[in-house]
Amino acid sequence: RMETDRNPMELPNNTGFEEDSDYRDFEGTDVKDMRLEAEAVVNDVLFAVSNMFVSKTLPCAEDVAYINVETRERNRYCLELTEAGLRVVAYDFDQTDDRLQTPYHETVYSLLDSLSPAYREVFGNALLQRLEALKKESQS
């Protein structure tokens, strides 16, 4: 687990939260950090795009992070990652355009699938190779 410069929220032991299933996983956990989430998104699909990295110039916070992506078609996008999902906020790295009203996608796969036919092909081929490997494994 990566270290953060914030302390996890500590709850006193007598809150009674332990019995309430809604709060069972809450104690000792930190608010989801979108920068860590964004890094995970990048690591997940980097193989299927030309370039992808978390923005170093746009501000990351607990509730928002920005990801720059260049598709294999050489189109550049800046993506916003929030609890609502991912969406395109500009057609270049490290930019946001408030006039852009693009839909949110629940997953990076869905977003890239809509932006990049080459991504779709590379990702699909990787999936097929993985399935073939699993099939061979199960037969041996």
UniProtKB/TrEMBL annotation:
Pfam families: GSKIP_dom. One of its GO terms (biological process) is regulation of canonical Wnt signaling pathway. Residues 1-24 are annotated as: Disordered. GO terms for molecular function: kinase regulator activity; protein kinase A binding. Residues 34-134 form the GSKIP domain. One of its GO terms (cellular component) is cytoplasm. Belongs to the GSKIP family. This is GSKIP protein. It comes from Edolisoma coerulescens. The lineage of its organism: Eukaryota, Metazoa, Chordata, Craniata, Vertebrata.
